[in-house]
Amino acid sequence: MKSMIVYASHHHGNTEKLVKGLAEKYDIDLIDAEKATEINYDEYDIIGFASGVDFGKFYAPVTDFAEKLPAEKNIYAIYTCGQDNAKYGGQIQEISQKSNCKFLGKYGCKGYDTYGPWKIIGGINKVHPNQDDIDKACAFYENILKTAENK
Q1: CA dist., res. 74 & res. 136, Å (int)
Q2: pLDDT tens across 127-150, in order?
Q3: Which of 35, 93, 124, 137 has an alpha carbon within 20 to 30 A of 85's alpha carbon?
Q4: Are 79 and 54 spatial neighbours (Cβ–Cβ below 8 Å)?
C-alpha cells in the first residue's frame, strides 16, 4: 500500500522530527504542506495528516490540503503538542468523514513548546519528541497498515 504524510512543522520542528522518524522506517512519502502547491492523492492508499497544534487546531496548510481529499481513502492524523488533549486530531477525522474516507485513528505526543508563558521559563517538553515517541508512532502506524489491509 502506497502511503504519504502531509505535514506542517513550523514551531520547533517537532512534527517534522516525528514524521521523518516514520519515513526512515517505512516507505512513506512526506509532503510539506507549507511548501507544496498541490497534491495528487490518486496513487496513495493511506494518507496521514500531521501537524503541530495551534490553539487546539492543526495548522491551516494541513487542513486546507485535507479538505481536498477524494473519497474512499484511508486517513489518519498525527500531532505534536505542548499539552495533550483527546480532541486534537478531531478536525482531520471530521474532514475525512465529510469526504467519505475511512478514518483509521490518531497519534499524538508531546513536543517542545515555547509559546506564551512557556517562553518565560525556557519552554516545556524540551526532549520531545524523543525516540520513545517515534517508536510509539511506528507502532501506531503498524496498526494503521493492518487496519487498512483488512478493510
Answers
A1: 20
A2: 679 999 999 999 999 999 998 888
A3: 35
A4: no
